[in-house]
Amino acid sequence: MRNPSRWALAGALVLLIAGGAVAASLRVAPEASTRFIQDADGRSIVAHGFNTASSAKSTPDGLPLFTEDDLAREQTDMGTDFVRFLISWRAVEPEKGVIDQGYLDAVEERVQWYADRGYDVMLDMHQDLWGSAITPGGDWGNGAPAWATFTDGLPVNTGDMWELVYLEPGTIRAFDHFWNTTGEHPELAEHYADAWRAVAERFAGNDTVVAYDLMNEPYGGTLQGVAFESGPLTTLYQRATDAIREADPDTWVCVEPQAFGFNWGLPSALGPIDDPRDGDPRVAFCPHLYPLPMDLGDGFAGDTRGLVQGTVAQWRSNVLRTAEMLGQGEGAVPVILGEFGLDTTREGAEQYVKLVYETADAAGMGVVYWSRDDGSWGPYESDGTARNLVSWLNRPYPREVDGLVSWTSSDDGVTFEVRKSGAATVYLPPAAFTAQPAVSGAEVASWDAASGILTLDVAGDETVTVAR
User: Fold this and answer.
1) Residue range 115-124, pLDDT digits in tens
2) Is there a single domain that holds both residue 126 and residue 187?
3) Looking at the 3D structure of the chain, how many domains does it have?
4) Same domain flag for 182 and 267
């Protein structure tokens, strides 16, 4: 924050966003996505859950401060069915060329916790600010191992806003070496792909792990925008996908756009990924949403409210356009909103959460909230007291549906369209649905009032309504 050039960059970014909003308003918004990541039984998945957890960024073993009892409570309180589980390159490959099988054992144990409760798991190779070795104290950055960190002695000054540390010369140089912009470390991307191959070898055939998120919030260093996304970022995604497919032909591969800009509503220039698996490609788009005014600390109120609403609408359009492009003429790829969140003590927080979920529902996106940590961004206090977020996220939704097309959700129930006969599972908050709900368009197979799980048999192309 002490460097005036940072303020200049922030101002330029605001102008870019404003310009992007004008351009987006002149284009017709694409249709909602009707393709979804599928589970091992071929049912469409509507992701509803948490990123678990930010604490994994700093623990010595790379595992979140999260127990099996914590998971049981989460499912009881909010009916979640999905997790974006944080893993890291530094934990997978702590020494150059050495895969830590003990770490993968521990991740596999936690995946089993989710399997026992019927969840689906996305493994997210997480990073922020490259890695902890960008500073001598190791208290900034996470993700990359120390052996893969080359700052060339350039400074990394820290301040009040962690995002601005991305603009420090040492941070930029670490990323430039990874993307081989410097031409000095082409081996780093190869090791990254090898780390993903090791993960895929471990989880190939594990029906609970349905997706691999290839890199959290990519950052291009001195390369930004089109040059970064269409160049080294797309190349890395292709390389990692090819490595994964050598071990695992079935698990979905999720790609993210550049975080700077897209998270605020700007378009993406990410290139398509060719999936070498036999059969239909399994590539999905998993962007994040953090409107800039709220990222800078504002609430969802006053003048900011209108700006954020416009950003969310613009973001939705750009997400669906990118999903269409990634589909390479075969229709939009599936979309999951991999991260959104906020300090829920801010003014208008409940209305913002509702806006995001309603936008995602209408666009055919599942949502994974950031994050499953204690405190003002999360569902619980450190003493275990439930926070406001618990009631906001405890909402009706279709969990797994054969041939899902679209859905809407309200406090009174859920309506969804299907394109073929099959089974459907719906979650309804038990406190609000004490009696078996009324159902049209399907036959009730089972109803568990304690868990809120309703299973249905759908005869064919139908609109199914479930209501109190």
Assistant:
1) 999 999 999 9
2) yes
3) 2
4) yes
53 and 188 both lie in a single domain: yes
pTM (2 d.p.):
0.95
**Residue 63 is which amino acid?**
L
CATH number for 70: 3.20.20.80
Domain residue limits at 463: 395-468
Instruction: Choose one of 359, 394, 429: the last residue of a domain.
Output: 394
By 3-state DSSP, what share of the chain in percent is helix, strand and coil, each rounded to 5? 35, 20, 45
Burial class (CB in 10 A: 0-12, 13-18, 19+), 96: exposed
Is residue 240 domain-shared with residue 294, that is, in the same domain? yes
Indicate the Cα dihedral angle 198, 201, 202, 207, nearest 10°: 140
Q: How far apart are CA 190 and CA 130, in angstroms?
A: 16
| Final residue before a domain boundary, out of 344, 369, 394 | 394
Q: What is the mean pLDDT of residues 162-167?
A: 96
Q: What whole-number distance in Å separates Cα of residue 208 and Cα of residue 465?
A: 28
Phi, psi angles (nearest 5°) of residue 399: -85, -60
pLDDT digits (tens, 9 = 90+) for 219-252: 999 999 999 999 999 999 999 999 999 999 999 9
20-45 mean pLDDT? 77
pLDDT of 111 above 70: yes
Place of tokens 């493994």: 123
Nearest to 90 by CA among 50, 136, 129: 129
281-308 average pLDDT score: 96
What does the pLDDT read at residue 399?
98
